[in-house]
């Protein structure tokens, strides 16, 4: 379990995060949702260890980690712009990090992940030969082969078109559930958050406006901000959200 207790982050007089309290269970997919500048990426970086907290505790499996450096937390991140090495093939990108930790690059976990992400036909391609969706799958594979205990994703769908987004969303859900991998996703898109996540953290000006299931957020918004940001933004998409939500949980 990952727990955030009274987390605050300030830069000089600018309070970016204020008194954040969250508990995230193993294997859950949690979306950090909010408008640009609300603090969601800062919160992701605090969890990753890229940004130090000003105040509060971060506990992972009941041990404090807020003072642990990023490289010792065993969390890993997928960036929105893929960050692949253009001179390497898809396969070489996937196994690149394993060489540094002296793990076998032909391990069954690697081959299973390649199959799970449907990447086998693309392994010998260079980055410029891959589509946006293929690049994102390679980026996800490269991160997961390092066996992170928590997978962090910063706007993983923002660079993709709508058709590819749906397939990547499905793959992220499948990977998280197959591997029981705790996954935290930053997004500004209510549709993405509500259709991908088990729970959603709605952030307003550095504070948690609401934390709950998609059903809670949709049907029981706790503030005018949550209702305005979620429901009014969705408009025509709202029926589509309900249909996807019903299909996923009614199966």
Automatic annotation (TrEMBL):
Ranges of residues in domain ABC transporter: 2-230
Protein keywords: ATP-binding, Cell membrane, Hydrolase, Ion transport, Iron, Iron transport, Membrane, Nucleotide-binding, Transport
GO cellular-component term (any): membrane
Residue ranges that the Swiss-Prot or TrEMBL entry lists as coiled coil: none
GO molecular function, one term: ABC-type quaternary ammonium compound transporting activity
SUPFAM superfamilies: P-loop containing nucleoside triphosphate hydrolases
EC primary class: translocase
EC number(s) on file: 7.6.2.9
Domain of life from the UniProt record: Bacteria
Reactions accelerated catalytically: a quaternary ammonium(out) + ATP + H2O = a quaternary ammonium(in) + ADP + phosphate + H(+)
Pfam families documented for this protein: ABC_tran
SMART domains: AAA
Subunit: The complex is composed of two ATP-binding proteins (OpuCA), two transmembrane proteins (OpuCB and OpuCD) and a solute-binding protein (OpuCC).
Protein name per UniProt: Carnitine transport ATP-binding protein OpuCA
Source organism of this protein record: Staphylococcus nepalensis
